[in-house]
Amino acid sequence: xxxxxxSVVIFICVFGGAMAGMSLRSRLxxxxxxxxxxxxxxxxxxxxxxMSALLLGLLISSAxxxxxxxxxxxxxxxxxxxxxxxxLAHYGPETKEIRTLVRKASFHLVxxxxxxxxxxxxVGDPGVIFDQIQALSPRDEAHRLLQAQALTLAIELGQTxxxxxxxxxxxxxTALLGVVVFWxxxxxxxxxxxxxxxxxxxxxxLVCALSxxxxxxxxxxxxxPFEGLLQIPSDxxxxxxxxxxx
Length: 246
Prior knowledge:
The chain is an all-alpha fold.
């Protein structure tokens, strides 16, 4: 389910809870609407609101950490690919085929991470690049150092690429999100139970429910760094890779 659809469901649950509370208010016996009852409910909802804020903070922290991690890894991959291309270029013209493979692998990675980008042809097993670098025959000590540096970069690129592919799943816990929504619905039910049923109150509750839904929508969008409104742009990365192999 998309973040927008989830947010709409959350909005319905939260605002529906407020309207249910208003409907329940008129059916409650008078002793259940006393000042003492209201005070006890307020204390209980204050505790629930505090726990909801803590869980929301945890969800935000988890999504932001995942977003920042993948953005950092993407920067590292881009820098290492460019550096690997430079190392191979310094090695000599015999690495031209390897540099072409590096360029193709770069664009294939972009198409894997960003679903909206045109699909690039796969280059087969990424280990092919490592094998071809290892098969080079250095002529002197300088070439041996360049080969060793290229092999190290290829290993690091393979590890980081694997991490990025594996981290594409959601970092937001469905269970935590469900508990937060349940608690928010309870809080809004309590708002509706002890609030006057007029247009101003309904509008205020509508705005509050919409704000909560928008906040969770942004959390879910942040959890998808390669698609959606908050996606990491791929244009600069593609532009950088377009110069590889030249």
